[in-house]
Specification:
The complex is a heterodimer of chains A (452) and B (63). Chain A has 2 domains: 77-289, Roll (Pnp Oxidase, Chain A); 314-427, UbiD C-terminal domain-like (3-Layer(aba) Sandwich). In chain A, α6 packs across α7. Chain A is built from 11 helices and 23 strands. Chain A has helices at residues 7-17, 33-38, 65-72, 79-87, 168-178, 193-200, 209-217, 293-313, 343-352, 372-382, 385-388, and strands at 21-28, 43-49, 56-59, 94-95, 104-107, 129-130, 133-137, 145-147, 151-155, 158-161, 183-189, 222-225, 232-234, 239-245, 252-254, 268-270, 272-280, 285-288, 317-322, 332-338, 359-364, 389-396, 416-424. In chain A, α2 (33-38) links the parallel β1 (21-28) and β2. With 63 residues, chain B is mostly helical. Chain B has one domain. Chain B has helices spanning 3-14, 19-25, 31-42; strands at 47-49, 55-57. In chain B, a hairpin with a 5-residue loop joins β1 and β2. The longest helix of chain B is centred in the first third of the chain and has 12 residues, at 3-14. The N and C termini of chain B lie far apart (27 Å). Classes of the chains: A alpha+beta (452), B mainly alpha (63). The A-B interface holds A 29-31, 50-52, 113-115, 117-118, 120, 123-128, 153-156, 253, 255-256, 264, 266-267 and B 18-20, 23, 27, 30-32, 35-36, 38-40, 42-43, 49, 51, 53. Bound molecules: flavin mononucleotide.
Amino acid sequence: MRREETGFRKFLEDLDKAGQLTRIKNSVDCRHLSALGGDSDKAVVFENIADYPNWRVATALVSNRDRLAIAMRCDPKRIAFEFEQKSSKPIDPVLVNSAPCQEVIMEGDEVDLTRIPIPMMHLFDGGPYISGTFAISDDLNHGRNVGCYRLMYRSPTETGIDLVSPSDMRYYYQKALDKKEPLPIAIAVGVHPLDMLAASYKAPIDVDELSLAGGLRGTPLELVKCKTLDLEVPADAELILEGELLPIGWVADEGPFGEFSQISGDVKWNPIFRVKCITHRKDPIFYMLQMPWENDWLAAPVTEAAGLQALRVASVQAVDIRAPVGSCGYWSLIASIKKRPGEGKNAVAALLSVAEVKFVIVTDDDINIHNQDDLDWAIAFRVQADQDALILKGARAKHIDPSVKSWLLGKGGLPTTDKLGIDATIPEGVPKHLYRRIKIFGQDLVKLGDLT
Amino acid sequence: MTKLAQKLCRELQSQPTQFHDLVIKYKNVSWPLFLRAWGEVRGCDNLLRNDDGSYSIETGEKN
Ligand SMILES: Cc1cc2nc3c(=O)[nH]c(=O)nc-3n(C[C@H](O)[C@H](O)[C@H](O)COP(=O)(O)O)c2cc1C
């Protein structure tokens, strides 16, 4: 009997049903996957990969808000609210004995990454990349951890990994390194976008992102034991790489890579991941996460949910919130609120406190924040620069933002940034009727379409 | 070292080269073969990275 698909394959089915998936039957070379995927306004499954007879490649699955909403099973404008609500109800994973992701096993001398269709993604990349990973590690004190970490192909048994930024897995690695020990990790490729969302969520260190993924899916994740490690991986994944981060520290070149900042990054110095076992489905689908769009759309709900939380703590009633993909779902937040006097400023201050968000607009609930013209109108007529623009100096920043000039800081220096917030709510003391929008006389009575 | 890996090494010895330029130059080689050869090149002790992300191999010869 055919096993009912969950996870990645179920999502492909959902995209197909929604008319959001294209299937390409022609033979495609790994060097052309990225360009062809970028040419499509739908998600793509390449059914025939040159030199990789049993493989297919899927890409651009959540490259826009509508497709992310299909994953989330909600209205595109409700993603942040849904994410926040579901992530507050984690569901613990369950263990199963056998799994599709282990139908084929390569161990020892058989391990060979060149047997996986790892694509050439961008000009200036330091090598072919595995961009859509779900990386699992464990720590005696803090327990299981999952994050997304890109992998750069180095050799048939080794990849680079970007472990520069502070993260839980970086911390686990540092602990292992202090003891001169490798850190065992397992990488799943081809999991449901909600699992990726859970993994990329900056959860407190003791939170198990696999339970978070269960909460987002609304059903427990099925896990299976790794073949060579004391770790568990999602049973319905397409591909698993089992191995260890070598105890060498940040010494191996990695990058550049087309980053989530939409910039082709720098060469970084990073550890090496040695692969000891590869398992996959009999008919595997490799997931080429499309940079920067899928990364940015996965970042947006996390930033938006953090914004909602900040507004709640500030006792401001949020109506809508958006982390625009133009600022990578990360650096800007735009919100509409039901305002009481003074709360425009409270909201701006609250949103400026979120992570590395450096540009904020807050407006009233009559403005559709998804419509740029509406937003421009609010900014034009509800803002006085001397009263409504807030600048916060010297806040935490990310190296990746060229305007913070992190190269001037020297090795290990941490950059800061100035942040700007705009209160585009109706100023206190200005009568609301001055904002009455033009309404066409008779527009509810007659329709042009009725005249033919 | 395979012949292809030797060729790639010679490219990097002659001038700093972006990875994508190698990919373009050897576009007629099958991808898994190219990847295996690149794996050999990566194993060279004297493989260098330059600030612009290009690769080069130091020959030890002085001009
Ligand atoms: C597609 C994708 C790729 C990512 N790649 C990296 C990466 O290579 N390095 C990194 O430090 N963070 C990366 N991130 C962000 C981390 O996954 C994120 O910060 C996560 O919370 C880290 O998890 P951890 O702190 O639990 O280990 C990526 C996020 C996404 C969505």
